[in-house]
Amino acid sequence: MAILEAQSLTKRFGPVQAVDGVSLTVGQGEITGLLGPNGAGKSTTLHMLLGLVTPDSGGVTMFGLDLQKHRTEVLSRVNFSASYLGLPGVLHVREVLNSFARLYGLRDPRARVAEVAELLEIGPLLKRRTSDLSSGQHTRVQLGKALLNDPELLILDEPTAALDPDAGERIRNLLVSVARETGTALLITSHNMREVERMCDTIHFLAAGRIVASGSAAELAAHFGVVDLEEVFLKVAREGVPA
Ligand SMILES: Nc1ncnc2c1ncn2[C@@H]1O[C@H](COP(=O)(O)OP(=O)(O)O)[C@@H](O)[C@H]1O
Ligand SMILES: [Mg+2]
């Protein structure tokens, strides 16, 4: 069952056509990747799905509801994390997570913060100021925040961008197990091709605001006549899409 359907989304910033007719669906529990060179329109697409950027045209349906008409209900079932999001540095991690838990209207905010802290192994960080966290710790806290409301769809913009290989691997495993165990669908962007290959059921390749190819990593490689996603990326980014 599709929990997200984006239809012909477009967005222009002045002279730049950032997104140019993107349609995609995400099924329940599915892990979907958005790939593409810098400036391809990945973040803008995600921001439209989150109602942070208003599309010039096109629409978004989530859980069978129109995002614009049912914004509050829809967004209460979604969450978002990105490498570029900040945390209020003067607050302690526990205060940040408690605040979000209350903001989300959770029935037992403290219990949920404790659960998420255990899941992400951030218990020892709860009394630290967010400004004192390393980037790996920061990412885990951001993901903890994003899991608080037990989202049915988790949208992640380059979640492992700031992480060393070991921390990245742990976050990937955690995300995959969350998706598999709770049925949470993931929509992620990444420039780590191995990560996308290993995590994603379906990949959409974006170039200049358009989806130029979709499929599993193996399907994309076969389609472009190359051995892996890294080569698909290089081929599309350098040569454009073959007619
Ligand atoms: N708020 C904005 N104002 C002006 N231009 C923007 C804005 N957001 C994105 N863009 C432009 O839109 C294009 C797509 O950007 P983005 O969606 O961030 O790409 P990606 O995430 O794939 O790197 C880029 O050319 C970028 O400079
Ligand atoms: Mg981006």
From TrEMBL:
Keyword set includes Disulfide bond: no
GO molecular function: ATP binding; ATP hydrolysis activity
Compartment(s) of residence: Cell membrane
Cellular component, GO, one term: plasma membrane
Record-level GO BP terms: response to antibiotic
InterPro entries: AAA+_ATPase, ABC_transporter-like_ATP-bd, ABC_transporter_ATP-binding, P-loop_NTPase
PROSITE patterns, sorted: ABC_TRANSPORTER_2
Superkingdom, taxonomy of origin: Bacteria
Domain called ABC transporter: residue spans: 4-233
Keyword vocabulary terms for this entry: Antibiotic resistance, ATP-binding, Nucleotide-binding, Transport
Pfam family, one: ABC_tran
Membrane topology qualifier: Peripheral membrane protein
Family indicated by similarity: Belongs to the ABC transporter superfamily.
UniProt-listed PANTHER family: ABC TRANSPORTER ATP-BINDING PROTEIN, ABC TRANSPORTER ATP-BINDING PROTEIN NATA
Name used for this protein in its record: ABC transporter ATP-binding protein
Source organism per UniProt: Herbidospora galbida
